[in-house]
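Sync notes, pocket subgroup
Present: LS, DG
LS reminded everyone that the earlier model was apo-only. Rerun requested with LLP included. Inputs:
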Amino acid sequence: HGTSRINDKGHLEIGGCDVVDLAKEFGTPLYIVDEELVRRRAREYVQAFRETGLRFQVAYASKAFCVMAMCRVAEEEGMSLDVVSDGELYTALQAGFPAERIHFHGNNKTPEEIEMALAAGIGCFVVDNFTELALLNAIAAEHGKKVNVLLRVTPGVEAHTHDYISTGQQDSKFGFDIGNGTAYKAVEQALAQPQLKLLGVHSHIGSQIFEVEGFRMAVEKVAAFSIEVREKLGATFPVINLGGGFGIRYVEGDAPLPVSTYVKAITDAIITQFTAADYPLPEIWVEPGRSIVGDAGTTLYTVGTSKDIPGVRKYVAVDGGMTDNPRPALYGSKYEAVLANRANESLSELVSVAGKCCESGDMLIWDLKLPPVESGDLLAVFCTGAYNYAMASNYNRIRRPAVVFARDGQADLVVARESYENIVGNDLIPERLRKPA
Ligand code: LLP
């Protein structure tokens, strides 16, 4: 998919770059991002919305993969940016991302984070709870500023996805519940706060969603709620944000819908619901993360040791694992992979791919068909663009890999591999523990 192909040497090529060369140049493990594919995905959203004729913003959910080069690509592709922490905000600002196109999310923004975002002049705060509503108003008042807010609501829709990543149901740590009247109270309070300009509501029902039904239901709930607010409080919302969660294909059997299908389901539902109530059509915002970067990422590993348990299984270990991709250990996520240096050979061996962490759960792929594997081979694991580098850790003091953007035969380093100095960079030895000279 994307610009990936097998070249005449039998090597995997991404963005016109032979990955065997990339391994030599940058070392492994290595995250390789197919920049053209990221841009294509972004354009699919923008294009699909343009065709509806409605006003919209496609905000890239930077949590999926937040580095400065990615912020630049998002900006160039006309996207807005959703951040959820001071670190993501800082990254975006350092990359020169236009502050007015940044939306700040999160269920526990600290006063410092709010100050930072306010000083930068970001476009909108997505307010999650009453504590934050009061805090934001107070801080904005101190600075004599008026800020745009969306209220995050829980529409009471359960998306069919992993428990940890579904968020739209009532019993969730996020947002104001529509069903029990909390969201209505939040709107009343927001309207009463002089420093807040209420733009509308936000709903995010989960992640890695393969159907449109959940989005349709969320629109219905949000529309009914907006209409109720207009009737009772006389306020109309100029913006409705439907969050992210659009699924991607990791392995055979995953059946995401085309981007245009999700967009059309959302916009059609908005048009139907709001027009029926004679409600001015709001601007529609969405926040895709995974579906912008997920399938554009590939992680390249070097195969090291192997362990054959006759009649049971063969383990093959690579030079990374749960530190660069915690998703299999965390969610039981599945991945596909190929031997990148012998991608055209027949798949005659069944192996299970282990990471190098001291933990039995550090397995990347169970039962993968490969050509006969040898130490020194390169394994390319696909669809690692989202929530991999973003969730990477230094467990076992393993250094985080480098990230390159590959495009038109050129590979550019966008994140350097961590150094040993980075590993101990924040460590301090108190005087009393120092070794005598
Ligand atoms: N908007 C909000 C408010 C969100 O909470 C999220 C994801 C997104 C947008 C983007 O969702 P996406 O389009 O990427 O599905 N670490 C998990 C995923 C957690 C998603 C959290 N929120 C994973 O690796 O699957």
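DG: Residues 61, 63-64, 82, 105, 165, 204, 207-208, 243-246, 287-291, 327, 331, 386-387 surround LLP (CB under 6 Å).
LS: Residues 213-233 form the longest helix (21 residues).
Action: DG to write up.
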